[in-house]
Amino acid sequence: MTVHIGAKPGEIADTVLMPGDPYRAKWVAETFLENATCVNEVRGMLGFTGTWRGQRVTVQGSGMGMPSLSIYANELIRDYGAQTLIRIGSCGGMQTDVGIRDVILAMTASTLSTPSRGIFRELNFAPSADWSLLQAAATAAQGMEIPTHIGGIYSSDVFYDERPDLTEQMTRHGILGVEMETAELYILAARHKVRALAVLTVSDHLLTHEALPSEDRERSFGDMVEIALRAAFPGA
Ligand code: HPA
Questions:
Q1: Count of CB atoms within 10 A of residue 151's CB?
Q2: Please, what's the largest Cα pairwise distance for the chain?
Q3: Confidence check: pLDDT of 218 > 90
Q4: Which CATH class is domain 15-232?
Q5: Residue 214's pLDDT is what?
Q6: Where are the domains of the chain?
């Protein structure tokens, strides 16, 4: 047990999928995993461990934003020995050729600030994905014929952003989408020498103001989970 995760030693798998929403963790466990058991209920941030194609996997909610994700990722890595962490979540599209429902594989995550900012001070560290996971996810997405973009994303501290100028500059510099968790995940993975990737679905669009209809959300989310699992276990 840790401060925020009630799982007993050994109840967390080496591979952890991390949706922001704890109810998504439950849905993933019910939809994709066999023999899934609930391993965390602390603060309602549900976590489940089961198997996918015979491979042991945990799905643990991260909450929204980097301070929340940082707590769960730190404890998963440092206390439970997690080796591979894949964020599965939604993002806002920031390029005209990035459509609603498309998948983004985040090669890098630019950010103004993360909970790790204090370590780096004046240095602009470049948080980046694990190459083996990124490559495996790209192969999986190609095989599933899902429109997929690979490139930089922006990890913001705010959903209700009052900096349209910043959005403009991000778009101008080719950033594909915005979300609120990945930069800190990548920094923690680098620090602790584990693997991380973010697989994201475009749920809304900052330029076109389109949004994914609620009835489509589940299917898009399912595609993303499938890509994440195939990336984690390429031979399975
Ligand atoms: N901004 C920040 N985070 C998000 C967004 C957004 O537009 N969409 C999904 N996650």
A1: 15
A2: 48
A3: no
A4: alpha beta
A5: 77
A6: 15-232
Q: Is 204 part of the annotated catalytic residue set?
A: yes
What tens digit of pLDDT does each residue of 126-177 get?
999 999 999 999 999 999 999 999 999 999 999 999 999 999 999 999 999 9
Give the span between the Cα atoms of 30 and 38, in whole angstroms: 11
> 203 in ligand 1 pocket by Cβ < 6 Å?
yes
Name beta bridge partners: 93. Answer: 177, 205
Q: What is the pLDDT of residues 32-46, one digit of tens each?
A: 999 999 999 999 999
How far does the centroid of ligand 1 lie from the alpha carbon of residue 107, in Å? Answer: 17
Give the C-alpha separation, 18 to 15, whole Å: 10
**Secondary structure class of 106 (helix, strand, coil):** strand
The string of DSSP codes covering 122-140 is T-----B--HHHHHHHHHH
pLDDT tens-digit series, residues 5-39: 999 999 999 999 999 999 999 999 999 999 999 99
Statement: the pTM of the whole predicted model exceeds 0.90: yes
Instruction: Kindly report, residue by residue over 74-85, the tens digit of the pLDDT.
Output: 999 999 999 999
The whole-angstrom separation of Cα 200 and Cα 221 is 9
CA distance 68 to 66: 5
The yes-or-no verdict on residue 215 having pLDDT over 90 is no
Q: How far is the CA of 90 from the centre of ligand 1 (A)?
A: 7
204 lines ligand 1 (CB under 6 A): yes
Q: What is the dihedral of CA 7, 190, 70, 35, to 10 degrees?
A: -30
Compute the average pLDDT of residues 192-203.
98
Burial of 165 (0-12, 13-18, 19+ CB in 10 A): exposed
